[in-house]
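Exercise: predict the structure of this protein bound to NDP.
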Amino acid sequence: MIPAATTPHLSRIPPCAFPPSGDTPRKRAFITGITGQDGAYLAQLLLDKGYEVHGGMRRNAQAERARLETLGIADRVILHDLDLTEMTNIFRLIRGVPVDEFYNLAAQSFVGASWEQPIYAGDVNGMGVARLLDTLRTLAPATRFYQASTSEMFGLVQAVPQVETTPFYPRSPYGVAKAYGHYITVNYRESFGMHASCGILFNHESPLRGEEFVTRKITRGLARIARGANAPIQLGNLSARRDWGFAGDYVEGMWRMLQQDIPSDYVLATGVTTPIRDFVSFAAEALDMPLDWRGEGVEEVATDRRTGRRVVEVNPAFFRPAEVELLVGDASRARTRLGWRPRVDVRGLAAMMARADYDAVA
Ligand code: NDP
Ligand code: GDR
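Solution:
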């Protein structure tokens, strides 16, 4: 039985919507950031595995459940109000909803915005993790904990490829805050013996990716142009390289980390790095739009080879105050210990996203 929420508004869906079937008790998981890309895919994965899935969402005028609805699981998860900046609701939640596994995916996740709101980024992405860990330590120390760490912590290149032991040199308030979240998780594991693991995940994308991130901005823009729109896509640094995988593969790795007897930290990555401009070309190819690139720096443009229409322009407004130029991960530890492997390569990913956006624009 799920204990009743300690405040009337805390649970939006009545508890015990899904009583355990058969003799095996159902595992129960909590996902912060369940309304985000990874939260939605992870919820789907855990439901498929038979978990009772709870998730935290911020109170907004309009509840954001679009991704859960797209996956057809909005009615199968139990949602609770939760903001990581507020200790009291974290305390009430963890006291009221005991779970086997706790996945902390909530974050101010857009790197570009973290320069505009550096203190908020620190509060959610750094302090929020400490609030969760300390409450779990006090009220539910046996809960297994997953922290969404990130390749952004590597920042300025110290080694290629990047592994779990590569030194961090974050280049944004987002990355700095995530480094705190990472180390406080490691520290609580070492100080209090908590089963706490960090997934150091490289970029992972999907048709559910937020529209401000570059891959989705590209695939949505290309889909509109393929459907007849005239405005070219305005992008920033086209030379930055990312190691892009499919979000559906990466949530499987998160789950596998929490099934290990011994908690640890793992890189999840494809091992292939691709410049932004090549991602544009891969996505355009999937829409039968071959591109010609010319010019350099802010003069660089891409045109549709068949029509001569301008498809991409560089706009300096989208450059960042400090850039992460090269990310490429080595996921050998995850492969060996977790049996984890990415199944979608960058071309397949670009095509999947471009086609989904093309269909959505129709
Ligand atoms: P999204 O931006 O899609 O989702 C972020 C989630 O966090 C949303 O549900 C959002 O809620 C929630 N959130 C934001 N602020 C708060 C807050 N103050 N309190 C509670 N919830 C909050 O990100 P992704 O799904 O892509 O990423 C999931 C996690 O993994 C993040 O921590 C991200 O930093 C990390 N990560 C992501 C990678 C990627 O490539 N996708 C790579 C490495 C790490 P709302 O809907 O209300 O905005
Ligand atoms: P990132 O993803 O910063 O790696 O963080 P994003 O897609 O925002 O940027 C990737 C690279 O593309 C360059 N770029 C642009 N980026 C955006 N958003 N918009 C543009 O117009 C544009 N033009 C060029 C950026 O400069 C950058 O080099 C993501 C997030 O999911 C984080 O939460 C996560 O931790 C990391 O991935 C791993």
